[in-house]
Design a protein that fits this description.
18 strands, seven-stranded mixed sheet, Aldehyde Dehydrogenase, Chain A, domain 2, 2 domains, globular, alpha/beta, single chain, binds nicotinamide-adenine-dinucleotide, Aldehyde Dehydrogenase, Chain A, domain 1, 535 residues
């Protein structure tokens, strides 16, 4: 087995103190929820980003365990699909209420495993809560049977129905372990599928805690099964067995997932990376744009697929924006705290820190200027990095179009909307973008020209991502398919057409009729339908 990044973390000698509510028995109960009948997979040794101390060791599943998980899930799906939609919805509503009541437990786990600020962890509660209530209330309406006109109007009755795919596999990353780990599970279940999820190796406890909560809410234990282990082993085995794969992660891994899914001819949705631009037009409210850009660039310590990495500012307001933005960045409080007393937490791992340092050092070596930040903050924590603003970034620098996925943003001066558009659309990503302008009409015109799955006007990212009724996903190298809204649940179904032909008028040449006459009648029928406006 080849070691991958998620297997290579080494355990330190000291062990991180767990929150008082999480006893050793509690940890063991969570770990018992991992599907691993063979009990033979290697252990994962996660570490806490705040202290580099050891977190509880996580046992992993083997490829055979994954095949067994999918077989178990397939049996459970038959029963789950028969459960009335109203019952499924009630389970989601109960889950929502339990999640809101017990939020502090999972927020502790997210922070322990991932190192983000508490407010950023709480935002995962908000997002998952909204998704649960949205699909509980609207899920079945997205899947309603569609009556359409048949080949012989009145005589051919046609219904398009939605059929669950069967067993959905979900692979998600560590950066939003609750939102991305669970947000896609909810519509899959509502659509009548069962789910097997591969937990990210760094954040398995968060996902296991959530499974326990789902069981408390009334979900049958086998309707959502969790496996753990390296992507190269357990992720691959999942794709090899399920009926649909929902993947969130890097573009490089997404390509591998797509190729493997393609071999099996199963569907895949791929939510991948981004290099998201924020455009400040000359007429923007500069103070608001600067504050919005700070939120967009540094939320989740920049480890957010839709966070802003490029600021394209009209020359007429460049200096004013730069001064307001840099000041707001310098006012940010970077801290490691299990309390709601800071905005920005730490990076999640040594790997993340290494990428951030590499991008900034490479840019500086090639002539970029650091306006603020550009350094580690060892006094805050081992993986802490100062919110950084670069100026003078050029195409030969790695940070120009490669995703950094950290608290680093580059500032560009542009002379017109057209310049901004060209720079925003440079590169192959197309996930999320932002436009700041007092002229909403012009901003929407610009938005339509941006190659981006979402565009936020006078907001950096949350307006689109938080609007659960609207689809969210990427163009180009940022992915395929959408989460949220109608597409976020329909992707988990097959569309099946059921056409019922009246016995009085079967299709095809009637017995005893000459074929030439049949064609003549057919031509007449075409003319008639055209005249009646039925075709
Ligand atoms: P990653 O691709 O390295 O890993 C994501 C998941 O895939 C992990 O659970 C990993 O174990 C698994 N995996 C690894 N190799 C695999 C393989 N060969 N087959 C199947 N699964 C495999 O990504 P990451 O570094 O953990 O996450 C950060 C990336 O995710 C960034 O690029 C970010 O932009 C992207 N992301 C995208 C979205 C979105 O909605 N578009 C959301 C969050 C993160």
């Amino acid at each position: 087995m080849t070691a991958t990044a998620d297997e290579t973390k080494t355990k330190t000698t000291s062990t991180m103190q767990l929150p008082a509510w999480l006893t050793t028995a509690g940890v063991n109960e969570l770990l018992s929820l991992i599907h691993r009948p063979a009990q033979a997979g290697p252990m994962i040794e996660p570490i806490a980003p705040y202290t580099e101390q050891a977190l509880p060791s996580i046992p992993t599943s083997t490829a055979e365990d994954v095949a067994d998980a999918v077989a178990t899930s397939r049996k459970a799906q038959k029963a789950w699909a028969m459960i009335p939609a109203a019952h499924k919805s009630k389970t989601m509503l109960r889950f929502h209420d339990l999640l809101v009541d017990r939020q502090n437990e999972v927020i502790d786990l997210i922070q322990l495993e991932m190192g983000k600020s508490r407010v950023n962890a709480w935002q995962e509660i908000l997002q998952v809560g909204n998704i649960a209530r949205h699909y509980a209330r609207k899920g079945t309406s997205y899947l309603e049977t569609n009556k359409v006109r048949g080949v012989m109007p009145g005589l051919t009755k046609v219904r398009e129905v939605r059929v669950a795919k069967g067993v959905v596999g979900i692979i998600s990353p560590w950066n939003y372990p609750l939102y991305l780990g669970v947000g896609d599970v909810i519509p899959a279940l509502i659509a009548g599928n069962t789910v097997v999820s591969k937990a990210d190796s760094a954040t398995a406890l968060t996902l296991l805690w959530t499974k326990k909560l789902f069981i408390e809410a009334g979900l049958p234990a086998d309707a959502w099964i969790i496996v753990t282990g390296a992507g190269s082993v357990v992720g691959n085995a999942l794709i090899d067995n399920v009926d649909f794969i929902c993947f969130t992660g890097s573009t490089a891994t997404g390509r591998k997932v797509a190729a493997r899914a393609g071999e099996r001819l199963i569907g895949a949705s791929l939510e991948l990376g981004g290099k998201n631009p924020l455009i400040v037009r000359a007429d923007a409210d500069i103070e608001a744009a600067a504050v919005g850009a700070v939120t967009g660039a540094y939320a989740n310590t920049g480890q957010m697929c839709i966070h802003i990495e490029r600021l394209l500012v009209n020359a007429a307001v460049y200096d004013e924006f730069k001064a307001a933005f840099v000041k707001a960045v310098e006012d940010l409080d970077v801290k490691q705290s299990f309390d709601y007393d800071c905005e920005v937490g730490t990076l999640a791992s040594a790997d993340q820190l290494a990428t951030v340092v590499r991008h900034v050092d490479d840019a500086v070596a090639k002539g970029a200027k650091v306006l603020t930040g550009g350094k580690r903050l060892p006094e805050v924590g081992p993986y802490a990095y100062a919110p950084t603003v670069l100026e003078g970034v050029t195409p030969e620098m790695e940070v120009y179009l490669d995703e950094t996925f950290g608290p680093v943003v580059s500032l560009y001066r542009v002379n017109s909307d057209q310049d901004a558009l060209e720079l925003a659309n440079a590169g192959n990503y197309g996930l999320s973008a932002s436009v700041w302008s007092k002229d909403h009409t012009m901003a929407r015109v610009l938005a339509r020209k941006l190659r981006s799955g979402s565009v936020n006007i006078n907001d950096s990212a949350a307006a689109a991502a938080g609007s659960i009724e609207a689809g969210m996903g990427g163009m180009g190298d940022s992915g395929l398919g959408r989460r949220h809204g109608a597409e976020g649940i329909r992707k988990y179904t097959e569309s099946q057409t059921i056409a019922t032909q009246s016995l009085k008028m079967p299709l095809g040449v009637p017995e005893g009729m000459e074929i030439a006459k049949f064609v003549k009648v057919g031509n007449l029928q075409m003319k008639l339908l055209k005249r009646l406006g039925l075709r």
